[in-house]
Amino acid sequence: MLKLTLRCSIAAALLAPAAHAGTMLQPAAASTNMGWFNTYEPFRAINQSGLAATYTSGVTDFATFASTTGTVNGGSSFTGWYSQANTTTGNFDFDLGGTFAIDGFALWNDPQASPNQGVNSFTLLADDNAAFSSPVNLGTFSAVDGIPNATNFGQQFSFAATSASHVRMVINSNHGSTLTTGFVEAAFSQVPSPASLALLGPAALLATRRRRGV
Predict the structure, then answer these.
(1) Domain 23-212 class?
(2) pTM
């Protein structure tokens, strides 16, 4: 009876749905071939200046933070990035500051819905070098246009866990503006280390292995 109970408990743990266990990962630097509008420089989109709350990179839960944190004055202060005039597509590159396993991306889009400047279609490429000489295509995604700051939460995009030190966001289109494209903030989901997963239980460990294909 004891063995049967133990087996049932293990089976239940393995079959139980696992919560997203990733933590926020703040890029160390950002650059773009799209230039920037006035003082809306690339680093402003990774320094948390446009968020209503701040996070601790490598500690704060990714899914919870992104889904509950809005933007503050994203379109009216120096708290986001906007491309130079008449350049609406191109590359925005993130330097992660080291090699990390990532499996998600959070984007706080331009909250000024009426100018339609927010990022629409984009493709994410990951690599171990800034030249992106052998990139891994993480997928092409679509972001909704921004909404008023208080409820302009981070939009979350998932992909297979990938080890990378640099990520390129290829901006394919915005939501209609012919002047500029921009967003307030961006961050990544860092996959927990095996030691951290062990503390979360078998279900979380199994889910992560499945995402990695092992």
Answers:
(1) mainly beta
(2) 0.82
